[in-house]
Prior knowledge:
Residues 265-376 form the ABC3 transporter permease C-terminal domain. InterPro entries: ABC-4/HrtB_transporter (IPR051125), ABC3_permease_C (IPR003838), MacB_PCD (IPR025857). With 383 residues, the protein is of the alpha+beta class. 52% of the residues lie in helices and 16% in strands. The longest helix is centred in the C-terminal third of the chain and has 34 residues, at 302-335. The chain is elongated, with a radius of gyration of 29 Å.
Amino acid sequence: MKFFPLLWATLWRRKPRTIFTMLSIVVAFLLFGLLQAVNVAFNQGVEMSGADRLITHGKYSFTEILPYGHYQQIRSVPGVDKVSHATWFGGRYQSEANFFPIMPVDQETYYDVYPEFVVADDQVATFKRERTSCIVGRGLMEKFGWKIGDTIPIQATIWPKKGGSNAWEFQLVGVMDARDETMKGQEDFMVFRWDYFDEARAFGQGTVGWYNVKVANPAEAETVGRSIDKLFANSPKETLTETDKAFNAAFIKQFGDIQFLIASIIGASFFSLIIITGNTMMQSVRERVPELAVLKTIGFRDGGVLALVLAESALLCLIAAVIGVLLSTFASGFLKPFLPGLEVNLGVWTLALGAAIVLALVVGAIPSLRAMRLNIVNALSGH
């Protein structure tokens, strides 16, 4: 710490240059923090998927609908504890911007298979009783200002009603909460009754999107999955049964390879950052050649000079990185209503600080090596 005043003074030797370089790093780490938070949000549901749950869907695509008749056959497979089903509805509330997952489900079994979502018993009872009822996540309820008893109009994008209308209306009878605080935001979707949906839709009667299967023993999940798929092998509607985690990961990839996109954007921004920050460090060392020679003259070893230049690089990068990630933390709070689960968590902070250290080493490597190899006589003579 006794060398900190020296480091601080050299860092601010050229204030405009340092400020603009810091701003570049701050913007890069603001972007880094937000993109990593998006990655966390998209993968949170995948990581929290139940180990005792399987998803049975069409063999060639989960967009392929399956006969409702599969239900009893799956239920009879040894090792199966409970079975439910759901279908992707694909609707909007009021405008194209108000998109959230909407699914018709089996009202009798859905919350037995998904115990991580908590709904009051009286609300579940009403859901099972009222044909046009629906239940929504608490985040959606607060976002749109809904209350129990409201009529929620939804504009269908896939499933029109008989007669050609795309307008569906549901009565809000319940609100979902995540049982585990770490899953907060994952409950922000809407479910309504499949029997009402099946009766009112214009086509596709007697089909479901996929089956949600809860197994009695998670260790036997793979065996149970193979047994289910054997039932429908060589049939017109063959199935593929996979873990809940694998299904959710595949579903997310339908929106694009999020991790690849994030890595590409971050990689491009950091490549530019290395050029900008490396140039700053090179100029800084070039300007201080006589000063570095004096340090060597008064007893600083080559390793000490190298450490000083690397420490200056690390100080620059770490200060800017912390500011950038702090800004991304505040920004994520404003964006969270639009993307539930968006959070700059400890993992993002750890990645950011690690990236800042790597950046410091990369941009400081050449200048510090040059400083270490500096010849005192040539440096003081101006050669």
